Amino acid sequence: MTIRLGDIVPDFDAETTEGPIRFHEWLGDSWGVLFSHPKNFTPVCTTELGQVARLKPEFDRRNVKVIGLSVDPLDAHAKWAEDIAETQGYAPNFPLIADPERTVSGLYDMIHPNASDTMTVRSVFVVGPDKKLKLSLTYPASAGRNFDEILRVIDSLQLTAQHAVATPANWKDGEDVIIVPSVSDEAAKEKFPGGWKTLKPYLRMVPQPGK
Ligand code: BEZ
């Protein structure tokens, strides 16, 4: 099933390393990141899970719950966690879904048969508190993801959910942002009383609201 931006993401029941969950209920009012990794006891995945564990306080600070998924069974997750702690210095501190029947992987279209019939690709789904898909990414097994980038884009998603702005290329939290084209100059005067810089009529830069 293809899940498109703005769709309510599929709900599911799953076994995880932190007990059984029902996804939507588990998310509650938080933002969420659901990410799959192809297989347990593989090198790139080991580094990724260590990185997510290291960055967990950054996800918490943004009110984002993170949850991983692997098609391996629960007992294999527990054994692998020891290797992750030993080699990466961080043990997983977030739930990992065991999906040996490929139920969740199928619901979220995480198995791309031209890549592999049995392993998931590296999917990332960022879900808003309204349970709608805000962003998705698909990486091949050979490329580990940049979780700093995922935090960066969450900053953009959370900011632009609150204010009539968009974020430019390579933007980072605290830098100037763009007034969205649908806001007229007249309306912008009310929203951005501190003023803005017009580089082109369609490109108006303003300090990040709330900073
Ligand atoms: C890895 O995580 O290292 C990996 C997993 C599946 C295929 C290739 C690499």
UniProtKB/TrEMBL annotation:
It holds the Pfam family AhpC-TSA. Keywords: Antioxidant, Oxidoreductase, Peroxidase, Redox-active center. It comes from Ancylobacter polymorphus. Belongs to the peroxiredoxin family. AhpC/Prx1 subfamily. Belongs to the peroxiredoxin family. Prx6 subfamily. This is Alkyl hydroperoxide reductase subunit AhpC. SUPFAM superfamilies: Thioredoxin-like (SSF52833). PANTHER family: MCG48959-RELATED, PEROXIREDOXIN-6. Residues 3-159 form the Thioredoxin domain. It comes from the Bacteria. InterPro entries: AhpC/TSA, Peroxiredoxin_AhpC-typ, Peroxiredoxin_C, PRX_1cys, Thioredoxin-like_sf, Thioredoxin_domain. The lineage of its organism: Bacteria, Pseudomonadati, Pseudomonadota, Alphaproteobacteria, Hyphomicrobiales.
